[in-house]
Design goal:
homodimer, alpha/beta, six-stranded parallel beta sheet, six-stranded mixed beta sheet, elongated, DNA-binding
Chain lengths: 328, 328
DNA sequence: CTGTTAGCGCATTCAA
DNA sequence: TTGAATGCGCTAACAG
């Protein structure tokens, strides 16, 4: 693989010892003659020599590699997360090994184990399971871990999230202002993710307190959803649908479109958006924009701090952005 | 970092030599007593020993790491590409180090150089530049390279793409069937990407041959685009807009929506889609779906073949999927 | 069936 | 201002 020029060859060619080359590589010029330095420089260029990172790491224990585990890379949320993380890490010469959980706990676990065989210095994890115990094996490796988007219980690692509760509450109030009588909350399986539970509980508490009906549909985005959803919005009450994440929101919009159900005349629609395309969909969907790129940036920064043993924060909460449009 | 248990400690603890441990690790049980084997197994578990990949690689030259360079990870096309690549690579225990070019040639080059310092075994590249010479430094490292989505000239590496020409031609014919008189082709800067040129030339040839007008807008998706686009579709002819990629398509839809221009009554719209959301946008956008996940899978397979020195193919062309809806 | 020895490519004492 | 020697953790002849 790669170039097979080694430090020894450079040394021989330049007529100095490996030690001197090593010093040159590490910028230790203090005690080096201009002559030697230039000769080495020339030789390296000439041989197109690149130091072998494996060997370097073996000594230094540094690999400049961070493992990043996302729940599902085909979800825009995860992609933007990666963009944010990468932009920060690369400034410090770190790079990412990326694992796609593919929304499967089994896949996540398997790939995570493979990941641990790599010489990574830390892990940024968007976990698929809400239980810390699922990730106990991470504790054994003494790696810094940063959680993004979702937290696990009990608390064990620093986490970067959005102000889910406040944002949800703001929309809940808006729903009440608009005199909706019933809200159908739709989510992918709710027990799997704490964030979803948080959002749901916030909605439920506030809506119930204000005498509104609330109904939960917790299912995969598939045919079952269609039937359940249509049933749920059947009643005479003025009804709004609230999607707990971007994928669900898109699924719902598709169903309503297929059934030619008008928004907001027949039913109101809102929820969390990852794709940033809700303004394109008629009549413009009022929603909470998850700023996942920013979350990624914060997570990257937190990781860098952990690596440098600065006493890093244990929680960062970023503000969501709410877009008021015409679907509610 | 990680666990600091080494093979020596395990050896001492188990009362055997490092060699024996090494044999155990590599599954060479043929000539090993049951007793020894079990003792080693127990000791490893007890010490929670994990072999150090750095040291292994230093000998074996295998890192199980592939560098993947995407043009812009915030583009759905790139995300799905990654999903496809990852799904194939992980089956063979390979993992990806991911670089986001961020649509900046400068950024791509810088990060690519950092990437080469990592112990990767190959590179899958969605290049930002159409010129092979920009990537000459890759040739020096004797790494297998696979190009995805876009090719560079002159041809130097195997490439996985879509049947751009055939798909574009099919839509061109459809446009003619529908009696459009003028087509406005919109793209991000066209000189930068061969694929864009290919698509445009195909359109132009076929439309001109059939006596249609064709106009090219080659610009970033920003305010300039809005003005140019509105000018272009001003005329009395029956006009269609053709977007050369997904980002542009979304940009156009947004502009038309802002200006309350009806599709397809006032203007027809079609193009390449990456987001797979065009069915959601009223009235349903007729488009060419880029199956980037499949392209990614093919690229992953090709890379694996190259690594095993199987004489791999030098070009794979996958079929696009055309969705006829109501925007044309 | 198992151990001794050497070496992968580099960084770092220690000595000159 | 420079080098020789040693070791990081592991694998693979070669030898018993």
């Amino acid at each position: 693989m790669k170039n097979n020029v080694t430090i020894s060859q450079v040394a021989k060619e330049a007529g100095v010892s490996k030690t001197t080359i090593s010093r040159y590589l590490n910028g230790k010029f203090e005690n080096m003659s201009q002559d030697t330095r230039q000769r080495i420089e020339k030789t390296i260029a000439q041989l197109d020599y690149h130091p072998n990172r494996q060997a370097q790491s073996l000594k230094s224990k540094k690999s400049y590699l961070i493992g990043v585990v996302v729940s599902d890379i085909s979800n825009m949320y995860s992609s933007l997360l990666l963009k944010g993380i990468g932009s920060i890490l690369s400034k410090s010469n770190y790079q990412m090994i990326i694992i796609d959980g593919g929304n499967s706990l089994k896949q996540e676990q398997e790939l995570l184990e493979k990941l641990l065989e790599q010489p990574i210095e830390g892990i940024i994890l968007q976990p698929l399971s809400p239980e810390t115990s699922h990730y106990d094996f991470l504790t054994q490796h003494k790696l810094p871990v940063v959680l993004v988007d979702r937290e696990t219980a009990p608390t064990h690692w620093p986490v970067v999230t959005m102000n889910n509760i406040a944002a949800t509450l703001e929309i809940a109030k808006y729903i009440i202002e608009k005199d909706y009588e019933k809200v159908v909350v739709v989510t992918e399986p709710i027990k799997d993710v704490l964030t979803r539970q948080l959002r749901y509980r916030t909605l439920r508490e506030h809506l119930k307190m204000n005498g509104k009906k609330i109904q939960l549909i917790s299912t995969a985005v598939d045919d079952t959803l269609k039937k359940e959803l249509l049933d749920a919005i059947q009643g005479p009450e003025k009804t709004a649908i609230f999607a707990l994440n971007g994928r669900v929101l898109l699924g719902i919009l598709k169903i309503l479109q297929e059934e030619k159900i008008n928004i907001p005349e027949q039913v109101g629609v809102t929820g969390f958006d990852d794709w940033n395309i809700t303004e394109l969909i008629s009549p413009g969907i009022t929603c909470i924009e998850q700023q996942s790129e920013k979350i990624g940036e914060a997570a990257g920064t937190l990781m860098l701090q952990s690596l440098e043993k600065e006493n890093a924060e244990d929680e960062i909460i970023l503000p969501a952005k709410i877009h008021y449009r015409h679907s509610l």
